[in-house]
């Protein structure tokens, strides 16, 4: 059974992710982590989905069955689990969340004892144990070796203090009006508390989760409501989080949604000016606009690209000795502050940038213009490896000679090919996309 995707295990709760599968996965993970255990404790948190109760109880059953003690801390942001796992000296941390997906889905994300997401090799090792029936039976414990669980409700304060401490001590949010959209998710308590304790006038929306309304027409996936309120209340800025609060979308004082690449560019330059940018570089994904790369190059800042996913961004950051990176979708990583993408930590850095600049958000968060970019998803009947596709290089050569960047890849879950073209001239990009679509229709679509 294939379990892990690009960000942990994710699927429809009660279907792919049912109680028995979760219990079995918890046993496999416990067996894996036990090999290098120092405390025999694992931390478990969740977002606000109703199915979190089912999954949490199944996780506890599986982990205690192989000898682990479990600390349950209830609804908390994903980055809080990463932080608290290391802070509380646990062998591992587990977050129950499907991030920005609708409430019907849920997921399980694992962190090691340092609060880092697991590597592909570690995930494979857990999956191998999951599929080894003998190991699953033989590694169970009995008697006094069976684990216990307890719920702790006061760890929220530790995370709040850690995030607040990342905000420059010479700054205050007094006089700043902020619209905060909590997406009816995991940050519905910590988000408003952090901003209010730093002095902001906070207008909070979507902070009443009922188990079913997480990400529903709100938050980072639907920031239009936040933008509308920014205009109505004449707020200085809007901040929209997703269900597990590892993603941030910013709305400026004009009620305009700030593009993720522009946000990365502005923050990178801010860190560089303060001499806080390690490696004189940052990391973005293959999806980021080349205008970001050209903008940073003006200050001799190198842009490295990773595969899509904040886990892969972080891997390149660690390999290159870089402390800043992100995805245009809103996952932004300040590794000096957080172990993974953290919407609230990122929000405080954005606010610090705006305050230090002495300008309005609409001025400072719009540092360059994006190049025309077209993304086209196209159904195919077969997935022929791109390097085996006859005629593809001949089609791409004149496109690339026009200075157009291309990214072509198959979907990992659907019979689709994803085509991305980007260049300085919109007409060239449009014409090149038409050429590509015609080629792939002929090459990858079989008619009966």
Features:
15 helices; seven-stranded mixed sheet; 18 strands; 448 residues; single chain; alpha/beta
What does this protein structure show overall?
This protein has about 450 residues and is α/β, with parallel strands linked by helices. It is about 35% helix and about 20% strand. The protein has 15 helices and 18 strands. The chain has helices at about 20-35, 50-65, 80-85, 120-130, 135-140, 155-165, 190-195, 225-230, 260-275, 290-295, 310-320, 345-355, 360-365, 390-400, 425-445, and strands spanning about 5, 10, 40-45, 70-75, 90-95, 105-110, 150, 175-180, 200-205, 235-240, 250, 280-285, 300-305, 325, 330-335, 375-380, 405-410, 415-420. Helix 14 (about 390-400) runs antiparallel to helix 15 (about 425-445).
Shape: globular
Task: Note the beta-strand portion.
Answer: 15-25%
* Straight-line distance between termini: 32 Å
Number of helices: 15
């Amino acid at each position: 059974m294939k379990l892990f995707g690009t960000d942990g295990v994710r699927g429809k709760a009660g279907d792919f992710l049912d109680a028995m599968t979760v219990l079995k996965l918890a046993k496999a993970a416990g067996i894996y982590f036990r090999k290098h255990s120092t405390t025999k404790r694992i931390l478990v948190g969740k977002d606000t989905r109703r199915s979190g109760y089912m999954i949490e109880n199944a996780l506890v059953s599986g982990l205690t069955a192989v000898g682990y003690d479990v600390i349950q801390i209830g609804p908390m942001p994903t980055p809080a689990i990463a932080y608290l796992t290391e802070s509380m000296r646990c062998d591992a941390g587990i977050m129950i969340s499907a991030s920005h997906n609708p409430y019907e889905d849920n997921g399980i994300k694992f962190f090691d004892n340092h609060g880092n997401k697991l590597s592909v090799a570690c995930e494979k090792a857990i999956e191998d144990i999951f599929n080894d029936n003998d190991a699953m039976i033989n590694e169970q414990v009995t008697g006094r070796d069976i684990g216990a669980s307890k719920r702790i409700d006061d760890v929220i304060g530790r995370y709040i203090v850690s995030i607040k401490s990342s905000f420059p001590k010479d700054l205050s949010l007094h006089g700043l009006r902020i619209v905060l959209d909590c997406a009816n998710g995991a940050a519905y308590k910590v988000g408003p508390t952090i901003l209010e304790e730093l002095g902001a006038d906070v207008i909070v929306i979507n902070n009443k989760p009922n188990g079913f309304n997480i990400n529903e027409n709100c938050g980072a996936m639907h920031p239009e409501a936040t933008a509308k309120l920014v205009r109505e209340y004449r707020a200085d800025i809007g901040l929209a989080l997703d269900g597990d609060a590892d993603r941030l979308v910013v709305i400026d004082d004009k009620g305009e949604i700030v593009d993720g690449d522009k946000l990365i560019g502005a923050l990178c330059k801010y860190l560089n000016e303060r001499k806080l940018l390690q490696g004189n570089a940052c990391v973005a994904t293959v999806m980021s606009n080349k205008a970001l790369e050209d903008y940073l190059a003006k200050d001799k800042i190198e842009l490295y690209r990773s595969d899509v996913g904040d886990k892969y961004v972080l891997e390149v950051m660690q390999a290159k000795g870089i402390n800043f990176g992100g995805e245009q979708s809103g996952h932004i990583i300040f590794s000096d502050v957080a172990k993974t993408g953290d919407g609230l930590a990122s929000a405080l850095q954005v606010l610090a940038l705006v305050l230090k600049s002495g300008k309005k958000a609409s001025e400072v968060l719009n540092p360059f213009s994006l190049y025309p970019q077209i993304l086209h998803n196209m159904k195919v009947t077969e997935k022929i490896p791109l390097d085996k596709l006859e005629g593809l290089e001949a089609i791409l050569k004149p496109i690339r000679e026009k200075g157009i960047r291309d990214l072509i890849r198959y979907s990992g879950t659907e019979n689709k090919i994803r085509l991305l073209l980007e260049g300085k001239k919109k007409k060239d990009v449009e014409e090149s996309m038409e050429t590509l679509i015609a080629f792939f229709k002929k090459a990858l679509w079989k008619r009966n």
